[in-house]
């Protein structure tokens, strides 16, 4: 199964690079879908079925449709060719390479995966599927963060309304 | 009164302000800010009547600390900051109305102002929650609530390119730092098997610690939090965002966001410091960042000509002093003998709140009359408005750390810690930084008193709103009291 992991990880990465490199916003959005699909497959490989499915339904589905709608409505043109920012690219590349090297060293030497964490305790209640368990956890153990997320969404909604008011000519 | 009522009250106030904005016909929308101010004053009073719960069995207490004086102190900082920010915002409202979109026909001429007063309330609730969070999940949701509110507030002046640019920069870099934070949390969870800080502490202080993995988790978290508090080399966003954001929001960012960043850093570093294998390396990492921050902050502030940029670099410099205190954490055997770094940081942040908010209050008042925020705008202010100039002098003296001000004791305690821990290199850098501080803070004073104003300019006194005047007088008094008797503020911590 490991080779499947590499395939999907590569897919996610290629998609991610596509988002950054593409000058055309629509192509960038499609590259993002590819990346999300790769991610969803990785989640499913980790037995996190619900998260994987949500990744496809919500991110690759709903959010991307919205995204493309907006791009089409706004009539965003292909970004004009700028001079390639050589110095900037060098710095960014350097930092990214250093981080990747650090990650490799850490993963090699830290014996990650030597011990596994205990499985989530089964919860009481009517079902035993992922959806049931996660829902149960969210609204029993984690009810407080959920409330705070509610405030967070309220703030975000206010922000969207405030920042996107119609501009009068 | 249970402690979590405080957050509930602040959130409800925010919602009430939004509803009043939507449904009540108001002549002047600034009255919405008054609801908030009044409510915050009451909430501040309630801080002293908090009762801790007898039973902590509810899952709620997994996410929220109990019996924690430090959390109350930081909640107080959040409330006071928001209060002063609302006072500033109500003075600043003319500029907000000018720089947001013109209202539609028939709408209220001040439409769009109500949210400018309500958003700080939600940010305040988030900051208060951050002070009490003791679970990685609650830390994260609180931090995000605050950050998202800040994204919106920074970009609030929609017709001002500077504000929009600042908003976009803050959004992109903020998202990046959040990524680092979550990745760090994931590693920390992987290393310890828990997201509750006390359980993480138990796991890390045991024998079987995965040193490399834990260090990696810590460095990711440190990067993200250094970004939030403005530690070098993650401070690049600060000058641009501070300059572009509306002035009251800049004040909020530089005090509220920094205070909350430090309480989270204090809480998250604590489990790592309890591990004998990790502690030396952790201290080293913090020391490196502290040294860089002190050098970069103080030296970059020297040539600044824009007042907001100068205060931005000054805020980086102060983050350096705070990190310096953190880098001087005593070993377990010495603890208890001295003022702990946590207390020093709390005191320093309290003093920093007073002096920074005072500087921003003066700046807002001047900005409403004089367009532009260059240091030259302050020429001859002493002749024009002696009171404003006096307030500014007190604030600058305290920021520089001149004796008899609260700022002096802040720096003094930090240096004392460094001497006790024999961190001589850090101490030297800190002293050089403080010396540079004298130059750039007093440069402002000099321009207010020594340089003559252009005779062509308007030299009438700048009007100061009643609330701003009261706030300035209170802040000046507190700075002087803190400078004469620092034990008063430290007493609040225990």
Task: Give an account of the 3D structure.
Chain A is mainly alpha-helical. Chain A folds into two domains: 1-78, Four Helix Bundle (Hemerythrin (Met), subunit A) (Up-down Bundle), CATH 1.20.120; 123-169, no CATH class. Chain A is built from six helices and no strands. Chain A has helices at residues 2-21, 25-45, 49-74, 86-109, 130-139, 143-163. Chain B has a domain at 288-494. Chain B contains 19 helices and no strands. The longest helix of chain B is centred in the middle third of the chain and has 32 residues, at 161-192. The mean pLDDT of chain B is 89. The chains are: A mainly alpha (169), B mainly alpha (494). The A-B interface holds A 102, 106, 109-112, 117-118, 140-145, 148-149, 151-152, 154-156, 158-159, 161-163, 165-168 and B 11, 15, 18, 59-60, 62-64, 100-102, 104, 112, 115, 118-119, 122-123, 125-126, 129, 137-138, 141-142, 144-145, 148-149, 151-152, 155-156, 158, 190, 193, 210-213, 216.
Features of this protein?
heterodimer; A: 169 residues; Four Helix Bundle (Hemerythrin (Met), subunit A); 6 helices; B: 494 residues; mainly alpha; 72% helix
């Amino acid at each position: 199964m490991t080779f499947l992991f590499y395939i999907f990880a590569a897919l996610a990465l290629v998609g991610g690079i596509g988002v950054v490199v593409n000058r055309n916003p629509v192509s960038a959005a499609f590259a993002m879908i590819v990346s999300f699909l790769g991610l969803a497959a990785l989640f499913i490989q980790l037995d996190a079925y619900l998260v994987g499915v949500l990744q496809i339904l919500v991110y690759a589905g709903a959010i991307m449709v919205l995204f493309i709608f907006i791009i089409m409505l706004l009539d965003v043109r292909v970004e004009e060719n700028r001079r390639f920012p050589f110095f900037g690219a060098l710095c960014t590349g350097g930092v990214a390479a250093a981080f990747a090297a650090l990650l490799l060293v850490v993963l090699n030497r830290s014996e990650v995966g030597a011990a596994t964490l205990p499985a989530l305790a089964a919860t009481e209640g009517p079902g035993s599927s992922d959806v049931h368990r996660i829902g149960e956890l969210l609204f029993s153990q984690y009810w407080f963060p959920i409330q705070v997320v509610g405030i967070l969404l309220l703030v975000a909604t206010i922000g969207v309304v405030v920042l996107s008011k119609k501009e009068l000519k | 009164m249970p402690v979590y009522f405080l957050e509930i009250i602040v959130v409800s106030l925010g919602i009430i302000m939004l509803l009043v904005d939507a449904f009540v016909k108001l002549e002047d929308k600034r009255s919405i800010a008054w609801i908030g101010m009044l409510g915050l004053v009451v909430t501040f009073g309630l801080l002293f009547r908090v009762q801790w719960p007898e039973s902590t069995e509810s899952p709620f207490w997994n996410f929220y600390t109990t019996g924690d004086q430090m959390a109350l102190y930081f909640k107080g900082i959040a409330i006071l900051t928001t209060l002063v920010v609302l006072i500033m915002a109500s003075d600043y409202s003319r500029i907000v109305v000018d720089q947001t979109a013109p209202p539609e026909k028939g709408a209220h001429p001040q439409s769009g102002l109500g949210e400018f007063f309500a958003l700080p309330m939600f940010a305040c609730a988030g900051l208060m929650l951050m002070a009490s969070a003791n679970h990685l999940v609650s830390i994260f949701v609180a931090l995000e609530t605050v950050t998202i509110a800040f994204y919106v507030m920074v970009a609030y002046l929609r017709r001002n390119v500077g504000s929009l640019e600042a908003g976009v920069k803050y959004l992109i870099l903020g998202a990046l730092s959040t990524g680092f934070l979550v990745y760090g949390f994931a590693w920390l969870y992987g290393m310890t098997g828990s997201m509750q800080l006390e359980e993480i502490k138990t796991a890390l202080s045991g024998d079987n610690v995965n040193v490399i993995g834990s260090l990696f988790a810590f460095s990711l978290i440190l990067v993200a939090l250094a970004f939030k508090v403005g530690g070098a080399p993650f401070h690049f966003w600060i000058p641009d965002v501070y300059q572009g954001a509306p002035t009251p929001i800049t004040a909020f960012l530089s005090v509220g966001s920094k205070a909350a960043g430090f309480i989270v850093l204090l809480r998250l570093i604590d489990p790592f410091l309890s591990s004998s294998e990790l502690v030396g390396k952790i201290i080293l990492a913090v020391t490196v960042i502290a040294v860089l921050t002190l050098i970069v902050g103080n030296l970059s502030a020297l040539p600044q000509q824009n007042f907001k940029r100068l205060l931005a670099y000054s805020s980086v410099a102060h983050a350096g002093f705070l990190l310096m205190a953190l880098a001087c954490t005593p070993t377990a055997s010495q603890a208890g003998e001295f003022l702990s770094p946590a207390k020093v940081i709390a005191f320093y942040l309290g003093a920093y709140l007073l002096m920074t908010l005072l500087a921003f209050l003066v700046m807002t008042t001047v900005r409403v009359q004089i367009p532009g925020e260059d240091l030259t705008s302050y020429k001859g202010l002493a002749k024009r408005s002696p009171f404003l100039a006096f307030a500014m002098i007190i604030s600058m003296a305290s920021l520089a750390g001149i004796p008899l001000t609260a700022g002096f004791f802040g720096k003094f305690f930090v240096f004392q810690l460094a001497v006790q821990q024999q961190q001589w290199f850090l101490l030297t850098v800190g002293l050089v930084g403080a010396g540079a501080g004298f130059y750039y803070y007093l440069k402002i004073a000099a321009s207010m008193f020594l340089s003559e104003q252009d005779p062509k300019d308007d030299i009438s006194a700048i009007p100061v709103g009643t609330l701003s005047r009261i706030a300035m007088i209170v802040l000046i008094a507190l700075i002087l009291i803190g400078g004469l008797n620092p034990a008063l503020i430290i007493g609040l911590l225990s």
